[in-house]
Amino acid sequence: MTIATIEPFDPSTSTVNPLAKVVGADLVVPLLGGGELRYVNLDYAASAPALVEVLDFVNTIIPFYASVHRGAGYTSQVSTSLYENARTTVRRFVGGRSDDSVIFTRNTTDSLNLLAGCVPATGEVLYLDLEHHANLLPWQRLPHRSLTAAVTLAETLERVRAELSTGGISLLAVTGASNVTGELLPISELADLAHAHGARIVVDAAQLAPHRRIDISRDGVDYLAFSGHKLYAPFGAGVLVGRPDWLDAGTPYLPGGGAVRRVKVDSVSWATGPARHEGGSPNLVGAAALAHAAEVLASLDVDAWHTHEQALRSALVSGLATLPGVTVHQLFQDSADPIGVVNFSVSGYDAGLVAAYLAAEHGVGLRDGRFCAHPLLQRLGLPSGSLRASVGLGSRLADVDRLLGGLRSLLSDGLTADYVVDEERWVPAAETRTFPVWAPHTPGTAGAAPCSID
């Protein structure tokens, strides 16, 4: 296991405030045993809250909602224009080529599974052991090779080069930023290696897109996938952007209305372009919200964006370093400039128990488990999981302070309430918090953590 280098924290950043307004920023939640606190969301990496601008935009377009591509009415024409213009916005947001297809899906997992049905049968897919399951499981159904990453990025690049040089690989699948540790992979260098050996590259940008500017034309990326729910637009849409030839020849992902040119009782002529894979009525609101979020992020001052995130991450990592028994984890000894995702563990405490305690007694939400990256957690020596805190545009320094304060209380005073395992998740033994009437809480139905269990 590699231990993270502790970053220095400059006290002058102590006035770090949100960089954008998010829905729920001042939400107040009940605490175990009584009292309330402003909710601290340090789980942006799982699902980011909606930007206020995005929600306002959704409310603006809802009165015009109608069928897309199929109606002659005015609202149908407006909806169709909105949907197709969203493709142009997303293509521009990621620096896409003029002929790149932009296909709207449900999420990153959906996008990568779609692409898996379009990879030519003439070669194998190569992926690393550090991938999220979304960028690992789809390829296991195809001829594939997995590769163990090294402890440095430099050596990992060399391993990828060596594997590609053996031939027979048609696609290299990599993440842009680790969903476990936030470390970036050298995408342009990996793209160069893939192309030099006759392969293409797909990048899982679920974590990268909400934190960094992307330019697939500049970096030579052939396919890119990301999700609206991580891009401050949680309305059920994702996207796949990339070269059209494989997509136009691949198996239609969602056979149905709109995906065809002509249908007979026992035969079909499929459409090309995005329509080939977008059968049925599309998620107009989700696509439009995703595109609008992309516009908001594209308008941010890059330096201010980077400074905001790095100040928060630095404060968190530096603060964790002062706590006895707390270890921050990273993948590579030579990684630099990670996004606002920090992975850590607390000696003597199950990660799920720590997360439950922080939520119930300090109003802090963060992630525990294995983050849908089981092979990576095994390699890090964390087979039972760890903790992940992640920040975003709506985060403030007070959020980091609340987390650190909760951990200090745990380490100095221990648990002040009893916790039990319910459906493989830690929960308070005696739940005293009230839940909304539209989301009633029933003991014994906590639900298993799907990426935490065996």
Automatic annotation (TrEMBL):
Keywords: Aminotransferase, Pyridoxal phosphate, Transferase
GO molecular function annotations of the record: transaminase activity
Name of protein: Aminotransferase class V-fold PLP-dependent enzyme
InterPro entries the record matches: Aminotrans_V_dom, Aminotrans_V_PyrdxlP_BS, PyrdxlP-dep_Trfase, PyrdxlP-dep_Trfase_major, PyrdxlP-dep_Trfase_small
Residue intervals passing through the bilayer: none
Entries under SUPFAM superfamilies matching the protein: PLP-dependent transferases
Catalytic activity: (sulfur carrier)-H + L-cysteine = (sulfur carrier)-SH + L-alanine
Keyword Transferase recorded: yes
Species this protein is from: Arthrobacter flavus
Domain Aminotransferase class V, first and last residues per copy: 40-403
